[in-house]
Q: What sequence folds into this?
């Protein structure tokens, strides 16, 4: 196939409830939906998970639009793409901008699998038809609120709880949850809010049988994490620090982590997601798929990714109703009563994208890029 056109939709969707992490609070979720057209007029969908501002990473909605609009056509025009795994290398000259690359690459995967009449997870090499869903809970107004929110998600069937932590909202939060729920699968995510000088906090957290602690230190660090790993029992999981296969290889060489939270957007798409999952498997390390508050399009990409061999822990992939009143796909993603999400055995991502709703209700800006 050859790409003939890319449509970008800058969408703004109101979250059901504000989502707070150690780096800030979101009330609206910004993102860029991607629609790729091949030379026969067939289309595929993807999602660029960059935020409005450079808070999680340096990429933003505007940098993603700039890079896709102004540089992708130079590298993709008239290029024959036989398989989506070739796509990442076509963009090799562009350094970084992984979220922009991933959103378009995912749309190429969706298009490719639809053209082959095959579900995306099968095209990827997935090995399961259900994935284990976990939920990520932001910082709440009070500890009591937090314990109540945890209870409400356990009732909905989620099998693993992750809470966001920051200095002053860490040991106290974990202690309160453990008092109420001593045996649940529980993990914490610091989003890089600490330094090695906070060792006492980490040592206290060691007492609560946490599944893992995610990205405790600097957002692109590997060396300090390796040092911390020697001092604590709780396994370290890296998120922000792993932006490429090379980073994953380095992290394992240094022993910076035992587990990787793979986000397709952060690493540049599904090809690299597969490679990191394969590496984790080979090295006997853990892996799971993390989310970025995706709409039903990106959520479907996450579900497909979580079927890969090498994914060994519950994923941060919740139902559509976790974040949004309504989704932009039909049917929305639903968590089964056993805490799993079923893959769709339909071509591509396996959902109907509600194009009119995207255009009329949620798009702030629509950009057409003709090749
Ligand atoms: Mg994280």
A:
């Amino acid at each position: 196939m050859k790409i003939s056109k890319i449509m970008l939709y800058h969408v703004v969707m109101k979250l059901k409830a504000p989502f707070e992490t150690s780096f800030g609070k979101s009330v609206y979720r910004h993102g860029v939906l991607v629609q790729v057209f091949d030379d026969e007029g067939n289309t595929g969908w993807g999602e660029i998970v960059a935020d409005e501002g450079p808070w999680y990473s340096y990429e933003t909605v505007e940098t993603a639009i700039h890079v896709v609009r102004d540089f992708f056509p130079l590298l993709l025009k008239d290029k024959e793409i036989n398989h989506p795994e070739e796509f990442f290398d076509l963009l090799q000259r562009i350094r970084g901008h992984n979220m922009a690359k991933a959103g378009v690459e995912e749309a190429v995967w969706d298009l490719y699998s639809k053209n082959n009449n095959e579900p995306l997870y099968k095209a990827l090499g997935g090995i399961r038809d259900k994935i284990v869903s976990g939920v990520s809970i932001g910082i709440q107004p009070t500890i009591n609120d937090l314990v109540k929110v945890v209870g409400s998600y356990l009732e909905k069937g989620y099998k693993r709880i992750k809470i966001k932590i920051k200095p002053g909202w860490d040991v106290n939060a974990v202690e309160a949850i453990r008092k109420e729920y001593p045996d649940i699968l529980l993990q914490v995510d610091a989003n890089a809010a600490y330094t090695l000088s906070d060792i006492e906090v980490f040592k206290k957290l060691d007492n609560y049988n946490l599944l893992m602690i995610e990205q405790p230190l600097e957002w692109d660090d590997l060396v300090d994490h390796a040092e911390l790993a020697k001092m604590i029992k709780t396994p370290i999981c890296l998120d922000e620090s792993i932006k490429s296969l090379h980073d994953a290889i380095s992290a394992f060489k240094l022993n910076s982590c035992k587990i990787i939270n793979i986000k397709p957007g952060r690493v540049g798409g599904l090809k690299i997601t597969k490679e990191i999952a394969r590496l984790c498997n080979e090295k006997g390390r853990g892996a799971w798929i993390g989310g970025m508050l995706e709409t039903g399009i990106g959520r479907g990409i996450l579900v497909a990714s979580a079927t890969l061999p090498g994914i060994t822990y519950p994923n941060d992939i919740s139902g559509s109703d976790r974040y949004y009143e309504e989704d932009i796909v039909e049917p929305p993603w639903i968590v089964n009563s056993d805490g799993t999400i079923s893959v769709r055995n339909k071509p591509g991502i396996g959902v109907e994208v509600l194009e009119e709703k995207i255009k009329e209700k949620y798009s702030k800006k629509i950009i057409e890029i003709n090749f």
The domain at 3-118+351-370 is CATH 3.30.390.10 (Enolase-like; domain 1). The mean pLDDT is 96. The radius of gyration is 20 Å. The chain has 13 helices and 15 strands.
